[in-house]
Every structure is written in C-alpha cells, then in structure tokens.
Amino acid sequence: MMKSPTIALLDYGVGNLYSVANALTVAGGNVVITSDPKQINAADKVMLPGVGAMRDAMANMRLHGIDVAVKQALDSKPVMAICVGMQAMFNHSEEGDVACLGVLSGTVRRFDDAWCDNGTPIKIPHVGWNVVSADTNHALWQGCNHQHFYFTHSYYCDPDDTAGLIVANTHYGQSFCASVIRDNLFITQFHPEKSHEAGLRLLSNFIKWQP
C-alpha cells in the first residue's frame, strides 16, 4: 500500500487551519501543521491557507518566515495556496496597499461596485457558490472541472500575463481569475475545504499530483 504524502500546512497565525487539515486528511493526505522550516523541508508537499486581511497576512508570513519557506518549497515540491494564500502569490494587493510575495506577476484588486449581474449591482464581499471552469485536461482538474466551489472574498487576482499559466475562471459580475496552475504551483481563490465533494476531489488530485 502506497504511503500517504506528508503535507506541511503552514501556520502563520491566520487561516482556517483545522478545517483545511481535516479536509486534506479526508482526501488522503498526512497533514503536519507547522511553521518549522525543518518540517516544511521534510514534507512532500506544502499548503498555504489564508483568511482575513492581506496586510496582516503578509506581516505574519514575514514574522514566521513563511514567505521564505514558500519560495524555497517552490524550488522542489508541489505547493498549493488558498484564498488569501493565492492572493499572496502576486506582486501587490490593493487591500492595505501591500507588497506580496511576487511569485506571479499581477495585482490583487477589489471587486468593482459597478459590476452587475442581471442588471443588479453585485454584493461585496462575494460569498457563495459559483461554477469554476478551466480550459484544460490537467490532472488537478480531473473530475471537478465546471463544478461549484465556495467563495468568500472582496478582492480577486488579476494576472499581468496569462502566458504559461493554466487559469480557471468564474463569473461574478464579470469573469475573474479563480485559480492558477504554473509548474508545481496550484492556487485557488475559492475554498476547496468548504466545497463538499468537488472540493475533496480537488484536494485528492493535489495529494496525488506529481508535476
């Protein structure tokens, strides 16, 4: 029987760690909640969760050395990031006017109050279920492409250039980036740990993924 991969779930003082840990365990992972560089280096894969305000998230990442740990992990192993974790991968966030990790080129922007659905202005924050679609047969999306996932956020990621990226989109007022795959990095704006069957399938795909 194949051993479950060890996933370092990064603890930097923000994030719904235990719901993510439970979902990863149900999906087949062996989870270690940690901010210890040795445990992160020893893990097979890395997960960066995130909730809350970007300025606090980035301050906590830098305080705990998670910013360095994420970039080191990207040199050698699969990394997944959720919600604020996804936003942290870009250059800059309008939320708090803060510099982020700069792994991907782009800006985190607030939803525009002028966006409308069926003639009605969207509500901010965006909270609820939306279909996420990726034009790809990538292993990470097997069995869960074009499914509903759960979102809760006021800001979205706007990549500068999608060349070399596998981008999944959803619609809320207008189409926006809901997920990106680049090499061994997989990021989602939605919360797979709150997305029931589709979310567990996506996490299972990440656990099995060998980029």
Automatic annotation (TrEMBL):
Metabolic or biological pathway: Amino-acid biosynthesis; L-histidine biosynthesis; L-histidine from 5-phospho-alpha-D-ribose 1-diphosphate: step 5/9
Keywords: Amino-acid biosynthesis, Cytoplasm, Glutamine amidotransferase, Histidine biosynthesis, Hydrolase, Lyase
PROSITE patterns named in the record: GATASE_TYPE_1
E.C. designation(s): 4.3.2.10, 3.5.1.2
Cited Gene3D superfamilies: 3.40.50.880
CDD domains: GATase1_IGP_Synthase (cd01748)
Record InterPro entries: Class_I_gatase-like, GATASE, Imidazole-glycPsynth_HisH
Top-level taxon in the UniProt lineage: Bacteria
Catalytic activity: 5-[(5-phospho-1-deoxy-D-ribulos-1-ylimino)methylamino]-1-(5-phospho-beta-D-ribosyl)imidazole-4-carboxamide + L-glutamine = D-erythro-1-(imidazol-4-yl)glycerol 3-phosphate + 5-amino-1-(5-phospho-beta-D-ribosyl)imidazole-4-carboxamide + L-glutamate + H(+); L-glutamine + H2O = L-glutamate + NH4(+)
Catalytic site: C83, H191, E193
Ranges where the Glutamine amidotransferase domain occurs: 9-206
Location within or outside the cell: Cytoplasm
GO MF annotations in UniProt: lyase activity
Function: IGPS catalyzes the conversion of PRFAR and glutamine to IGP, AICAR and glutamate. The HisH subunit catalyzes the hydrolysis of glutamine to glutamate and ammonia as part of the synthesis of IGP and AICAR. The resulting ammonia molecule is channeled to the active site of HisF.
PANTHER family: IMIDAZOLE GLYCEROL PHOSPHATE SYNTHASE SUBUNIT HISH, IMIDAZOLE GLYCEROL PHOSPHATE SYNTHASE SUBUNIT HISH 1
Subunit structure: Heterodimer of HisH and HisF.
Protein name: Imidazole glycerol phosphate synthase subunit HisH
Organism taxonomic ancestry: Bacteria, Pseudomonadati, Pseudomonadota, Gammaproteobacteria, Moraxellales
Gene from which the chain derives: hisH
